[in-house]
Amino acid sequence: MNNLVIMTRLKLKLLLRRPILLVSCLVIPLLLSLLAGAAVVRNDLAEIRAAYVDLADNEESAKLAAMLESSKLGWQQVGMEEVERAIELGQVDGVIVIPPNFGDRSSAIHIDDAYVCGYIPGKDSLAVELIRNNYQVTSLAMSTVAKLEKDLLSLPGSSGLTEAGMSELLEIKTEEARREGANLTISFHNLERGDSLQVIQIPDTAVEVLFLSVYSLMSSLMLADAATLRRMQSLPGGFGRDFLSTLLALTISGILQLGTMVGLTLLLMPGTSRPFNYVPVMAVLLLFMLAFGQIMALIPGDRRFVPASLLLFVSIFAGGVLIRLPTIWMQYVGQYTPHGWAIAKLSNLQTTVGFTGAVATGLILLVIAYLAQRKSEFLAG
Fold first, then answer.
1. Which residues on adjacent β-strands are paired with residue 326?
2. How distant, in Å, are the alpha carbons of 40, 79, 100 from that of 86?
3. CA of 216: how far to CAs of 112, 239, 247, 287, 334, in Å?
4. Residue 307 pLDDT exceeds 80
5. Burial bucket for residue 36 (CB in 10 Å: 0-12, 13-18, 19+)
6. Which H, E and C letters describe 131-148, residue by residue?
7. I want to staple 362 with a disulfide (CB 3.0 to 4.6 A). Which of 118, 258, 274, 287 is the partner?
8. What's the whole-model pTM score?
9. How far apart are CA 202 and CA 275, in angstroms?
10. How far apart are the C-alpha atoms of 378 and 271, rounded to whole Å?
């Protein structure tokens, strides 16, 4: 055990001899994050300016306005005469126009038609979609409640109740259900093919995924010295201790690199958030990268950098780290790469391989790398 600690310490010292690598993998991702934040000036939901025009001025439109204003977007009411000028000057990013017959179920063929509004988009395409989605979800909730009230009024025990009375009773019962822990999940069915090909956004953690991978691979290749491995292989149990100490040193340095990068990001950009499963996902990714580095060590030192870099780039690109990719790609291709699996998990997408399967795969790859290194003519030379 003492020998293992000493060997791990020596390998950490070897890594410290290349401070430029460590500094680059800390400074570059931080600069990229800062530049991205500076380029997207209004990347805060509270900075998005949404507006609505209420031409109905009735109970249903007031309910819609209250629901919109309770969201995180900065909703405000404007007059119809102000809309064109506000859009042109960039004062609002999108305007919902509530029609005079909004919520009038008697004049609509379908209940959904009674909750349709007009929409005047602004100049910021991302903000335009966020505002549109915010309204659509709110409108969907109102039309769903209206349908439920209609169904309830058709039941035998509802005689004598008016629409207003049923609405009040449903609201009371809904509040009681919420207090008891009820949760409503809305599932969308019968989507058109174009609607089903949604695009996932690159999360804030994509930069960290990228540079943890680069740092882990470079560090692995730095410690994969054939002469040292041959010397250790000549000692009783030396090869196994050397392999284990290499993994320990790489794990410690990877954790320090990631922790420092995350800490600096949070210090300079306190609003940055991370998914709830950030730590286990990054731990599994580090395991994959350790296995990948040890497999690449089987290639002679003067020829390993190019194939290792190319394979890493393929996994990073196919996994959606560099650019956002369609969900259908992530479902059928991307998630089966180490980086695609990590991005999918961080984006809360379903994956075929769970945490247990991913950890088992990483460990199996490490065992294969260990056995291959023991029998490698290049390393045993």
1. 199
2. 21, 10, 22
3. 54, 21, 10, 10, 21
4. yes
5. middle
6. HHHHHHHHHHHHHHHHHH
7. 287
8. 0.58
9. 13
10. 50
Is residue 92 within 8 Å of residue 78, measured between CB atoms? yes
3-state DSSP of 34-57? HHHHHHCCCCCHHHCEEEEEECCC
The answer on pLDDT for 164 being more than 70 is: no
What does the mean pLDDT of the chain come to?
A: 78
pLDDT band at 160 (very low <50, low <70, confident <90, very high): low
Using DSSP bridges, classify how beta strands 94-98 and 118-121 pair: parallel, antiparallel or unpaired.
antiparallel
- Closest C-alpha to 315, from 334, 296, 287: 334
Convert the pLDDT of each residue in 337-350 to its tens digit: 999 999 989 887 88
The first and second tokens of residue 155, run together, are: 């039941």
- Eight-state DSSP code of residue 105: G
Do the strands 94-98 and 49-54 form a parallel or antiparallel pair, or are they unpaired?
Answer: parallel
| Alpha carbon 215 to chain centroid, angstroms | 21
**Cα–Cα dist 210/208, whole Å:** 5
Contact status, residue 374 vs residue 243, Cβ threshold 8 Å? no
Closest C-alpha to 78, from 52, 101, 59: 52
Termini Cα distance of the chain:
28
Tell me the DSSP string of 82-151. Answer: HHHHHHHTTS-SEEEEE-TTTT-GGG-SSGGGGG--EEEE-S-HHHHHHHHHHHHHHHHHHHHHHHHHHH
Structure-derived torsion over alpha carbons of residues 287, 15, 378, 365, reported in degrees to the nearest 10: 0
Q: What is the pLDDT of residues 288-306, one digit of tens each?
A: 999 998 898 888 877 888 8
